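Standup notes
- DV: blocked on the single-chain target, sequence here:
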Amino acid sequence: MGIQKRLFSPAAAVISLALITGCAGGGSQIPASSQGTLQAHYSAPFSLRTANVNYSAARLGSVPASFPAIPAHSYNACPTSITFVSDFANNVVYMLSGVTSTVCGTITGLVNPQGMALDASGNLWIANTGASNVLKYAPPYTTVSRTLSDPFEYPTSVAVCKGYIAVTNIETTGGKAGNVAIYKKGSKPAAHLKDTNAGSEYFGACDTKGNLFTTYCTGIAGVNCSQGGGRVNEWKGGTGTAIELSSITLQFPGGLDYEDGSLLVDDQLAYTVGFYKSPYATASKTINISGHGDPVTIKVTGSDKTLLTTTCCETSYTTAAAAYTISTGAFLKTINIPNGSNPNQPIGVATNKDDRD
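- DV (later): unblocked, structure below
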C-alpha cells in the first residue's frame, strides 16, 4: 500500500532538470492569461513532474513500471451536478457527471493541482501546487477569472471562509516549514499564519462563523512527516495563534470538511473519517474508509447524505474516489477517471452540489 515518506533523488532531479529546463528552483509563476494554452507540464520543477514526489499531499504508494495508454474519450455536456477530481501527476482536473465515472469535461493548463473548494456562487478554486498559486474558475469552468499569487510556497488546499480565503502551504519552495496564507481583496496574501509545532500544513476547512481548521504534520513533508505525526489546529476567525485540538491525533494528516455543525477529519493512514462537534474532544461518529486506496481528501455532498473521498495511488491508478453513506458509513461505489500519461494521483475532490454549512 502507501509508504509513509515520499522519496526522490536530489542528484537525479538536478541532472534531469538541467536537461529539460536548463535551470532549477521553485514553482513557476504562470500568468492567468496563459492558462488555456500553456504546456504547463514543462514549467514545473523536476521534483514536481515525477509520480512519486515530496510535495504531493498524498501518502503515496509504489509506482508501476508501466501503465496503460490514454484511451479516447467523448465528453458529454456537464449536468447541473458536477464532481471535480484533481490529478496531481497529470496536471488536470476532471469534471464528472454527478457522483459517477462519466467525464463531462476537463480543466487543463495546471501544474500539479491538489485541494479544491467551491464558493457560494459556484466558483471553483484550485490549489495549483507546482505554479505556487491558486486559480479561480467561474462556471462553466473554462477560463481563469482570478489568480491568487503564493510565491515561494507549495499550496495544497484552499478554503473559502467568511470574509477571506485560506490557503495551506505544505512547505516553502526552499524546503522550510509550511504555513497558511490568508487572502482578502487582493491577489497577494494579507497575512500568514504560522504554528511553531507545524512542519507541514496539509488541508483546511472553515465553519460558518469563519473559524479555520487545518491538518498539519509535526515534521517537514518530504523529510520526516512520519506515522503518528498528524494534528489539527483551529484558528479563530482565520487570525491569531493556533489552538491545537489536542484530543485529535492522526496517523497521517488528511482532508477536512465542515458540515451540519460537525468537523470531519480524515486520517490517510488510519483510513477513517471522524466527526467532531465543538469543543472537538471526542468523535461522535467514525466512518471506516479502508479498501479503496489512501483517502487524501474528503467532501460531503447530496444534502449531507454522501461522503466522497479521493482514493490515491491504487495499483490500477484508475480509481479516483469512493462514496459512502453518511448515516451508516456503508460503502456505495467507486468513481474512476481515465488513465493519464503518468500514473494517476487523485488528490482533491469537490462538488457543486454542496450546501456549504
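- Follow-up: DSSP finds two helices and 24 strands in the chain.
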